[in-house]
Structure formats: structure tokens, C-alpha cells
Amino acid sequence: MKTPTKRKEVKGDTYITKLKIDARTVITVRTKESLKNWKAKYPAAIEVA
């Protein structure tokens, strides 16, 4: 069985930004709507390049 290849994520192509929602957790945000939802849940979230 062939293992799936991991696709390299490129800012602007596969995601729009990354959010640091607490001291340990960084999430990848792919759509503007998703970004809006995460910012509503975690207003102190910081956008990371």
C-alpha cells in the first residue's frame, strides 16, 4: 500500500494565515470565513506568518 504524500503548504496558495490561539496551539486557516469564526471564538488569537 502506498503512503499518501504530504503536500507542502504555501501561504496564499493552500492557506491564508496561521493563528496562534494559545501558548501551544497554532492552527492553519484556509478561508476568510474560517478566520472570522476562529477570531470570534478566540479574540486574543495572534496571526503568525
Radius of gyration from the alpha-carbon trace, in angstroms: 13 Å
Order of helices and strands: EEHE
Shape call: elongated
Largest beta-sheet details: 3 strands, antiparallel
Total number of helices: 1
DSSP E strands, number: 3
Structural class: alpha+beta
The rounded distance between the terminal residues' Cα atoms is 36 Å
Unreliable stretches? none
Helix content range of the residues, please?
A: 10-25%
Mean pLDDT: 89
Strand order of the largest sheet: 2-1-3
Q: State which percent range the strand residues make up.
A: 15-25%
Overview of the structural elements:
The chain has 49 residues and is an alpha+beta fold. It has one helix and three strands. The chain has one helix at residues 32-41, and strands spanning 17-20, 26-29, 46-48. The protein has a three-stranded antiparallel sheet, with helices on one face. A hairpin with a 5-residue loop joins β1 (17-20) and β2. The model has no long low-confidence stretch (mean pLDDT 89).
